[in-house]
Amino acid sequence: MVQRAKSRNRIEENIRQLQEYMAEQSPGIFPQLCKGKVQKQNICASHTVRKIRHGKKRSTYGSAKVYRIDSQNYDFRQGHYRKDQCAQQSFPEFQPVLPQAPYEEYKKKLVSAEEAVKIVKSGDWVDYSQTCSFPEDLDAALAARRDELEDVKVRNAISMKPVQIVEQDPDQKAFTYNLWHCSGIDRKYVDQGRAFYSPMLFRNCGSYYSRGYAPVNVAMITVSPMDKNGYFSYGLTNCCMQEMLDAADHIVLEVNPNMPFVFGMECDHIHISEVDYVVESTKPLGIAPGGAPSEIDKKIAGNIFPYLYDGITLQIGIGGMPNALGGLIADSDLKDLGMHTELMSDGYLKLYQAGKITNKKKLLNRGKGVFSICNGSTDLYEFLNHNIDIMSAPMRYVNNPETIRQLDHFVSINGSISKFD
Length: 421
Prior knowledge:
A 7-stranded parallel sheet has the order 10-9-8-7-11-13-15. The protein contains 16 helices and 20 strands. Helices cover 29% and strands 20% of the residues. By secondary structure, it is α/β, with parallel strands linked by helices.
C-alpha cells in the first residue's frame, strides 16, 4: 500500500509538472486538453495509448491529449511504457503537439500516384502486401519510372491482376519482383523468369519483417476509406500487414471505396497520422470467383462429405473441389458450422447464405467467423463490408497450432495437384 501511494504521488506530481509546462508553452490551449478525467488519468494505461509514426519517434494521443514522446522508454512490442520507467518519466521533456482534425491531415497528405511514388529511390525495397491489398494505381505509376530507377526490389503475394512493374520492365532493368505466395499470374511470371519465389512458413511471415529479414523502405497498400476518427481498415488482408508496416520507413495508402471495411481481432487498421501520402483510386479490386467444379471435383467432394457433421469448424481452401463441397453442404441438413480459415473464398459465402455457418459451437472466438486473407467474387467482398459476424486476424494467430488446438472438431479440407506421367 505504501509503494502504491508513493507511485500515485509521483504520477500526480508528474501531471502537475506537465500542466505547468504546457500552460507556459501553450496558454489558453492546455485547459482544453485536460477536460474531465484526463487530469486524474494514469498516463501509462496502455488501453488509452495509440502509437503514431513520426519519423523515428512516435506520439501518443487520446481523446483529449496529444504529446510527442521520446521512444526511449516505450516498449513497442508490448504497446505501452515500461513499468519501471513509467512513474519516473519527466513530462516537461515532452514536446506538446496540437491535435488536428483527421480530414485536414488527409487533405495535406493527398497527392497523385505519380507524386507519391517519387518517394521510391534506387536500391529500395517496396512492399505491396498481399492479394487484394495490391495498389494498382501506385504500381502503374512506379512502373512508369522504370527509366529513372535501378535495383528496386518489389515484394508481393498472390497477385490478383497483372503487375505493371513486371509487365513494363520485361528485362528487369529497374525492378525485381519477389513473391511470398503465387497465384496463377504469379506462376507464369516465375516460369518465365520474371519473378522470384521466396519459400516461407505462412504463420511466421510476419516475423520475417519484425526480425529484420524482410526490409521495407516503402510500403504501398490499398485500404478502405477513412472514417471520421482518421482510421483506415486493412479490409480483405490482415495476414502480416501490421508487421510489414511497422518495418516500413515510409507508408503510402491507396484509398479505394471498393475495399470493404472489415472488423478485426487486432492489427486491422491504420491512422492517417501514421502515413506519408494518400492516393485515391476507384479501380475494381482483383477477383477470384470460384469456377464450376469438374466431375472429379464433385467426386472428391462426395467422398469427403460423409465425414462431416453438425458443429464442426471448417477450413476449406480455394478451387473447384472446395466450391463443390460448399455446394453439397449448402444443400444438406448440416447446421451450426464454424469458420476458421487462412483464406476466405466464395465457398464460405454459399454456406453463410444457406445459414449453415453460425459459429455458435466454437469454443474459441464463439460467434465469429475468422479469416486472415480473402479473395473471391465482388459478392463476397460486399458480404464482408461492415459484417460484424466475421473478423480478420493476423496469420500468426490463425495458422498457429496452439490456436487450432483450441478448436474442437476442427476439419481442414484443401485440394492438391496430382501430376501423371
